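Q: Structure tokens for this one, please.
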Amino acid sequence: MPHFSVTRRVEFSETDMAGIVHFANYYRWMEEAEHDFFRSIGLTIMRRLPDGSYLGWPRVSAQCSFERPLFYADTIELRVTVERIGFKSLTFAIEMYKGEHRVAHGRMKTACCLCKAEGALESVEIPADYLAVIPVPETK
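A: Here is the predicted structure, written as tokens:
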């Protein structure tokens, strides 16, 4: 599958005392790119259902490896690829580039869940309308 791509600029508030992007921001950017991906295919990361509960995608796991530092005002491209579609989960591979250079890469696994009014979560199968538009990963 071709990847989904979004660009952003590093903000001053995202850097540490050394002027380098603080590691926690990479995870936030991964999540923002995931949300942008969902919007690009006409979906939402959180859908209110008629009974007042929500269909959502909480994280099961996330990891990121850092290869090069980023600094204030750098422009980066985040490339999101659906790596795996399970019955109840999606796994995304996310790569971050500054120009031609990959600066970080990671993965996020999200579970499709009902988020009930009292706060309980219940994993559910991915709805058909989501499966109809989520790009199927290439087989290797």
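A few notes: The chain has two helices and nine strands. Residues 113 and 123 are 4 Å apart (CA to CA).
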